Amino acid sequence: KSNLMAGKRGLIMGVANDHSIAWGIARTLAAHGAELAFTYQGDAFGKRVKPLAESVGAKHLLPCDVEDIASVDAVFDTLRDDWGSIDFFVHAIGFSDRSELKGKYADTSRENFSRTMLISCFSFTETAKRAAELMTNGGSMITLTYGGSTRVMPNYNVMGVAKAALEASVRYLATDYGPDNIRVNAISAGPVRTLAGAGVADARQMYNYQKRNAPLRRTVSLDEIGGAALYMLSDLGSGVTGDVHFVDSGYSTISMPRLEELRV
Ligand code: NAD
């Protein structure tokens, strides 16, 4: 492995277990020399995340629920007190009530719309602001999005609307922080079998459909998403900001399934 991340410190938010996209990113960054801090949401996830964090020598493992802004502030206060500055930040957090990740988007409730937007979109703006304050030598941050933001995917519903807003916020934040040499990008991943992914109705069928129809005829691995994150968060990506980068086996480029698919 390289020394691409040697001497760089950063925060990873969104590891729930070893299937999490955030974990694929974290272990890749660690393998290339990064020093990591993790957050976890609640004690049940904390128990799962602890051995993962230990396995990459993380110094900080901090509780954080983005619905509780005091817990967000506490995370960044701890990093400021101990590290003084950070170099990168990964936001891999999303949530919507699974009872609304099926059926019609039009049936989304006011309560779940607000909660989905807060956790899946605005939490990035709030954490990015705090992360940027600690990026006194410049830095790079990413969030995770999905192609349901710009094109309709069955059942993705309000999450698609939140991801569209998240992608727009990436462009605005990139513009705000560009003068400070802080880059802000999104990785748009193809479907991955995670806890959050399983919340979308018929997730398995959509996963298999993309496997059959994406140009690469497969889905993407956690390591492949980690590789893209390494590019975005290291100096390799130093000219890139405000981007939404697809890591999806090319699925976003096609406009029709394979003809064989139509004959089955
Ligand atoms: P995951 O379930 O492993 O991770 C989701 C994380 O969000 C969990 O760690 C959970 O604790 C956290 N979270 C939810 N609500 C929170 C809150 N209030 N406060 C703090 N943390 C909270 O699933 P994942 O698929 O790895 O999801 C990570 C990101 O990747 C999400 O933004 C998701 O939308 C995005 N994404 C997922 C896929 C996929 O197919 N799985 C595809 C593209 C993008």
Brief sketch in words of this structure:
The chain is of the alpha/beta class and 264 residues long.
Task: Explain what the structure shows.
The chain is of the alpha/beta class and 264 residues long. The chain has one domain: NAD(P)-binding Rossmann-like Domain (Rossmann fold). It is built from nine helices and seven strands, in the order βαβαβαβαβαβαααβα. The chain has helices at 21-31, 42-55, 69-83, 110-134, 157-177, 195-198, 203-213, 222-233, 259-263, and strands spanning 9-13, 35-40, 60-63, 88-91, 139-145, 182-189, 244-247. It has a seven-stranded parallel beta sheet with strand order 3-2-1-4-5-6-7, with helices on both faces. α2 links the parallel β2 and β3. α1 (21-31) packs across α8. It is globular and about 60 Å long. Residues 14-16, 20-22, 41, 45, 64-67, 92-95, 119, 144-146, 189, 191-192, 194-197 line the site of nicotinamide-adenine-dinucleotide.
